[in-house]
Every structure is written in structure tokens, then in C-alpha cells.
């Protein structure tokens, strides 16, 4: 990946992980929850799992079929389903999606996703955050029910922060 600083050249390989195993696990999880993991949902998840960086909806649409694009509503519906199921996260500031980095279903359940986003190379790393009880209690005071929180921290990754 080329990027602004030019003082180094590192590339970001996809997080290690067996795509086939993650897909199978997601199917089992959906079945258990009584949800249908349709072909289009599965394909959307696969494309996000295989990407080395956060993926925008139109990239999923473009890559959907080897021989052509998907219908946008199909992909948007699949993305929102996968997000509801906790399999992917939306990074608002990039308007892009990443697969949840948590190891399994139990680790994913109810966790607060935090992202470290490098302004230089675009790398994104998910970190597990403890429960944000301050947000929850203030929300409760306001009579607001929090479904999910995603925290986005902008800055420089270790490689880009070096000798800059
Ligand atoms: Zn996550
Ligand atoms: Zn960086
Ligand atoms: Zn850099």
C-alpha cells in the first residue's frame, strides 16, 4: 500500500485467519440465532474477510461476482445484516467495513469495538475495549438505550510514527 509519508514502505497483509472457518462459524451462529445466512450475505462477509483494509460498500458491489457487479440494495442489506449480527463493524469516518477481529462468537458478543486508524497509511487495527460504563450511565440518564458503540481513534501507527 502506498501512502503519503514515503519514509518507509510497509504493506499490510490481511489478518491471519482462515476465511473458510470464519464463514462456517458465521453460518453456524446465524442458524443458532434463527437467522438465514443467505448466499449474498455469505459472499459479502467473505469479501470483507479477505480484504486487507476496510472495504467500502461499492467495492463489495464491484467484486461481488467474478463477471459483474451486484445489485447495490442486495449488498447494503447484507452489510446491515452482518453488522447487526456483530460479524462486521462499520468505521464511520472511513465509511467502510471491516470484519470483527474478535476470535469467536463469545468474544464478539456485546464487546465495544475500538479502532486505531492510521492517518498516513490507512491501516486499521481493532482493539478490545472494556465496557464504556460512563457512556452507558449517561445514556441511561438521558433515557437512551445504547445498542452499540464504536470508538475511532485517529493517529499514526507504529511504522508511520517512526522518524517522521
Ligand atoms: Zn469487533
Ligand atoms: Zn501507518
Ligand atoms: Zn506512513
3D architecture notes:
The two termini are 18 Å apart. Helices cover 38% and strands 16% of the residues. It has helices at residues 19-32, 39-50, 57-63, 72-84, 105-108, 133-141, 158-161, and strands at residues 88-91, 96-99, 112-118, 124-129, 150-155. A hairpin with a 4-residue loop joins strand 1 and strand 2. It has seven helices and five strands; from the N terminus they run H-H-H-H-E-E-H-E-E-H-E-H. It has 164 residues and is an alpha+beta fold. Strands 4-3-5 form a three-stranded mixed sheet, with no helix packed on it. The chain is globular and about 40 Å long. Helix 1 (19-32) runs antiparallel to helix 2 and helix 3 (57-63) crosses helix 4 (72-84). The protein has one domain (19-161): Arc Repressor Mutant, subunit A (Orthogonal Bundle), CATH 1.10.10.10. The mean pLDDT is 86. The structure holds zinc ion (3 copies). One zinc ion binds next to loops.
Summarize the structure.
By secondary structure, this protein is an alpha+beta fold. The protein is built from seven helices and five strands, in the order H-H-H-H-E-E-H-E-E-H-E-H. Helix 1 runs antiparallel to helix 2.
Features:
two-stranded antiparallel sheet, 164 residues, 7 helices, single chain, Arc Repressor Mutant, subunit A, binds zinc ion, three-stranded mixed β-sheet, alpha+beta
Give, in order, the helices and strands: HHHHEEHEEHEH
- Helical region count? 7
Quick check: average pLDDT? 86
The stretches of 5 or more residues where confidence is low (pLDDT under 50) are: none
Would you give the CATH topology? Answer: Arc Repressor Mutant, subunit A
Shape: globular
Radius of gyration, whole Å: 17 Å
Helical content (DSSP H or I, runs of 4+): 25-40%
Q: Would you count the extended β strands for me? A: 5
Question: Which molecules other than protein and nucleic acid are bound?
Answer: zinc ion
Span between N and C termini?
A: 18 Å
The assigned structural class equals alpha+beta
What is the level-2 CATH architecture name? Orthogonal Bundle
Strand content: 15-25%
| Domains, number | 1
- Any idea of the CATH class? Mainly Alpha
Q: Please give the order of strands in the largest beta sheet.
A: 4-3-5
Fourth-level CATH superfamily: Winged helix-like DNA-binding domain superfamily/Winged helix DNA-binding domain
